[in-house]
Design a protein that fits this description.
alpha/beta; uronate isomerase, domain 2, chain A; TIM Barrel; 5-stranded parallel β-sheet; 3-stranded parallel β-sheet; 19 helices; 10 strands
Length: about 475
């Protein structure tokens, strides 16, 4: 029997029934990713397996480095085949790492390859996968269609033109591809050169001459409006923690003027400026009915030597341990006080904060919509079986799992969509075990309705304004088949 079998991660009959009858055939609503809109617009076909599977994947690079693989085989000048062989040598050493599961799930679902990847099987797998990569099914749009991806949310800078999103909208692409508004560059006042280059791009695309702080705010609002016109309904912020220092508009304007003059903002000034803008962005989101995503807690660029050599997002970030709850509470409260708190999804990277954040968000549910404030899915270093279960347990114990909007890939790779299957199997196994042990009712339709809601229906409803009302119940107690 192959490693990725029909019963993969499903330990009992109830779990297998839940997955087979309620989760397996559902489409995918992937509301947050880092996929390239250009690749979708141009229906990119990948030249080889390394290009499709390893390029840009800092998860794999970290494992390869830990296995003693030289950097040239990760981000350097080794040939694609040499890089693939280096990854193949690493995979057998990754037992118990989620990469081992994902690797074989992706080989099976994309290429129909059920062999374990290692140095001996690598040449054959390379040849077979590359042959299939040239088919329409494994073009970017072919992958979206094959996995029934109804919606993809990308991550976009306010200064982006969104030209590729427009091309997708004008095309025959069957997947809805929506931009996500991520204004992180607007907060980087401790990097004046980069900040000022970005402001120049913002000015060019907004067609607003930015001479003073009021112009800056007007340009940001202009781009927020532009994104809305192009289907955007989500914003996103990657923060070590929520900035909440008190800051008046006049103070923010002075900080802006100094940075525009090339001066580095102090740490205190940078937090003040960021605090002012985060409230500004929150109010814009609330006004338009958007959902705000907060990705909290990453400790980024820990290795300064490699940051200088390779740049950001190359695998040298880690889990932070900053206190989160007080700042997050203050941020949510300031928006709530003026009735300007938008729907919000809080992604937490440190499992030590799961329960604290799960209980905090319950203080801001206001009855205006089901699950208005969400505990985001297990993110980044936590999207393992154990991490997913921990997030589901915290959410279930402190809130309503039935209102959860589910999993996202958060990935740069088009081969990552089987992560939704991974999540669905973990969810069904967790629920199935509790059915078998008597912790959940022995009612297939009731528990199956929960599975269907969490795996797809809640997300589709949450972002379109019509969440599912409740899991189905079965007065006859339908049996597991």
């Amino acid at each position: 029997m192959p490693f990725i079998s029909d019963t993969f991660l499903l330990a009992n009959d109830a779990a297998r029934c839940l997955y087979r009858n309620y989760a397996a055939a559902l489409p995918i609503y992937d509301f947050h990713s880092h996929l390239s809109a250009r690749d979708i617009a141009e229906n990119r076909r990948f030249a080889n397996l390394t290009e499709a599977w390893l390029d840009g994947d800092h998860y794999k690079w970290r494992a390869m480095r830990a296995n003693g693989i030289a950097e040239r085989f990760c981000t350097g000048d080794a040939t694609p085949y040499e890089k693939f062989l280096a990854w193949a040598r690493t995979v057998p050493q990754a037992l118990r790492n989620p990469l081992y599961h994902w690797t074989h799930l992706e080989l099976s679902r994309h290429f129909g390859i059920d062999e374990l990847l290692d140095e001996q099987s690598a040449p054959s797998i390379w040849k077979r996968a590359n042959e299939l990569l040239h088919t329409e099914d494994l073009s970017t749009r072919g992958i979206l269609k094959k996995f029934q991806v109804t919606t993809v949310g990308t991550t976009d800078d306010p200064a982006d033109s969104l030209e590729y999103h427009q091309r997708i909208r004008d095309s025959s692409c069957s997947t809805q591809v929506l931009p996500g508004f991520r204004p992180d560059m607007a907060l980087r006042t401790q990097q004046p050169a980069g900040f000022n280059r970005w402001v120049a791009r913002l000015a060019a695309n907004s067609k607003i001459r930015i001479r003073q702080f009021s112009d800056f705010l007007r340009a940001l609002e202009n781009r927020h409006d532009y994104f809305h016109e192009h289907g955007c309904r989500l914003s996103d912020h990657a923060l070590d923690r929520c900035p909440v220092a008190a800051c008046t508009r006049a103070e923010a304007a002075k900080i802006f003027d100094r940075v525009r003059g090339g001066k580095v903002a102090s740490a205190a000034a940078a937090e003040k400026f960021a605090s002012f803008l985060m409230l500004f962005f929150g109010r814009l989101d609330a006004e338009k009915g958007w959902t705000k995503q907060l990705h909290l807690g990453a400790y980024r660029n820990a290795n300064s030597r490699m940051l200088k050599q390779l740049g950001r997002d190359t695998g040298f970030d880690s889990m932070g341990d900053l206190p989160q709850v007080t700042a997050l509470a203050q941020y949510l409260d300031r928006l709530d006080t003026t009735d300007q708190l938008p729907k919000t999804i809080v992604f937490n990277i440190n499992p030590a904060d799961n329960y604290a954040i799960a209980t905090l968000i319950g203080s801001f549910q206001d009855g205006s919509s089901a699950g208005k404030i969400q505990l985001g899915s297990a993110w980044w270093f936590l999207d393992s079986k154990e991490g997913i279960e921990a997030q589901l347990n915290a959410l279930s114990n402190c809130g309503l799992l039935s209102r959860f909007v589910g999993m996202v890939t958060d990935s740069r790779s088009f081969l990552s969509f089987p992560r939704h299957e991974y999540f669905r199997r973990v969810l069904c196994n967790l629920l199935g075990q509790e059915v078998e042990s008597g912790l959940l009712p022995d009612d297939e339709a009731l528990v199956g309705g929960l599975v269907r809601a969490v795996c797809y229906e809640n997300a589709a409803g949450y972002f379109n304004g019509a969440p599912k009302t409740s899991p189905e119940t079965s007065p006859t107690g339908k049996r597991w088949k």
